[in-house]
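User: Is it possible to get a 3D structure for a protein together with its bound compound? The compound here is zinc ion. I've pasted both below.
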Amino acid sequence: MIYWRWWIPLFGFIMLFGFSIIYFIEWKRPRLQQLQHMHTIKQWLAGCLNIFATIVSGWFFASYLFFISGYFTGLFAVLTHNIWLQRLYSFLFLDAIMYAWHRINHIFPALWKYHELHHKEKELNVFSTFHFHPKEIIISTTWRAVLLPLMGIEPAALLAYNALFFAVILFHHSNFNIGYKWDKFLQLFIVSPGLHHLHHSVIIRQSNSNYGSLFSFWDKIFGSHTKYNQQKIEYGVK
Ligand SMILES: [Zn+2]
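Assistant: Yes, that's possible. Here is the predicted structure of the complex:
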């Protein structure tokens, strides 16, 4: 068994350095030139606090899964004894539930009233990654605390997924101009900035699509994919 606590420094590293590197690149190579790169003290404080809270809560959640695994064997361990298959299932499952949860947030008004805050931003940059209503985070943490042990998600699988998940969502919220060709290539595998920026469009048809977080194929499988063709995007909610 991989000693799961080793994943915590990696997760912290990705959060801190991933944020810093993307912040620097979107400053030097912005997607929207007119976007003011200077951020307010409030944004910096909220960003730093959120990075810290994400690392600490990831560690707590992984410790919680480790504690529960001593008493309870989850579904994936029943399905297969192959540990690598269990990890593969866990990884795909974690991303699938993020897709489903995001889509549900757009369907039910009771949830949209919180998720809407994330969509109200008039411009996207790396700070937008953390701009969520606290109630949306509390609700999602609550159901995850029940569902993840039931499935038997290992702490290491959760931390590895979170590390990759945050690397991608920091990247796809950023105002980093990677160019159309690179965006088109990346969207074959992951949710690229082009795909996710469309999700923040004021046009409902576009914002009600591209719900994926890490892998881009969920939207294609479940019919919610909108192609990014360098169309001009007006951000926000109407
Ligand atoms: Zn959304």
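The pocket of zinc ion is lined by residues 102, 106, 115, 119, 199 (CB under 6 Å). The first helix runs from residue 7 to 28.
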